[in-house]
UniProtKB/TrEMBL annotation:
Protein name per Swiss-Prot or TrEMBL: Myosin motor domain-containing protein
SUPFAM superfamilies for the chain: P-loop containing nucleoside triphosphate hydrolases (SSF52540)
The keyword S-adenosyl-L-methionine belongs to this UniProt entry's keyword annotation: no
Residue stretches making up the Myosin motor domain: 1-101
This protein's GO CC annotations: myosin complex
Recorded superkingdom: Eukaryota
Organism expressing this protein natively: Neobodo designis
UniProt cross-references to InterPro entries, sorted A to Z: Actin_motor_Myosin, Kinesin_motor_dom_sf, Myosin_head_motor_dom-like, P-loop_NTPase
Example GO molecular function: ATP binding
Lineage: Eukaryota, Discoba, Euglenozoa, Kinetoplastea, Metakinetoplastina
């Protein structure tokens, strides 16, 4: 659980609301990205290095210290070995996104 403080407007006066400012704050804090991912059905988000540590039996010889492209390829191989489809798992820039079921 986490809390994000969002300012309703830059003027700091009561009963004012700036929708553009609030949207920008939500976007830059990652809240909107999280909502989009969860809405798409991929609530489980795990960094590549954590995925590699957790599922090392499937992956084999790929260290979490490997370069990012090597880590991503190792996750692809694990998906292929476990017959996981792109409907169940998506690969992002820094994280693996998985369905919860």
């Amino acid at each position: 659980h986490w809390i994000r403080c969002i300012k309703p407007h830059p003027a700091k006066k009561p009963l004012m609301f700036d929708g553009v400012s609030v949207t920008n704050q939500l976007e830059s804090s990652g809240v909107l990205g999280t909502v989009k991912i969860r809405k798409a059905g991929y609530p489980v988000r795990i960094y590549y290095k954590n995925f590699l540590s957790r599922y090392k039996l499937l992956i084999g010889r790929c260290s979490p210290d490997e370069p990012h492209d090597v880590q991503k390829e190792a996750v692809r191989k694990a998906m292929k070995m476990s017959k996981t489809t792109s409907r169940e798992v998506q690969l992002g820039k820094t994280r693996v996104f998985m369905k919860s079921e």
